[in-house]
Amino acid sequence: MLLSPPRTRPELSPAGADLLRIISDPRTPVFVTVHANGRRRYGYWQPFDSATGRGGCYVALPTDECDTLQTSGRITFGEPIVDPTKTTYRVLPARTPAAPERAAREWARAA
Fold it and tell me: I need a surface site. Which of 33, 47, 54, 98 has the fewest CB within 10 A?
């Protein structure tokens, strides 16, 4: 039985890896807003940190890097919240199904 090789994803850039770390953190809900004209904006709310005196603001993420993560299948969008001029989605890390152990063994034997 011939199995297709496992799909490989392109390497992440350092910025992409950092964004994926932020998106994967359940304490940091990231959202994308798609405006009526098609413009997309990714971001999250950074809570105030009294120790550093920083935060309490909205943090925008680089759209091109986030779009690359989305087109490569590393992130997905949740259910939409629709307003007349924009639609907002929760950004979530993509869950890739694990390859069955038997298929992985057969692939290793075939190689």
Answer: 98
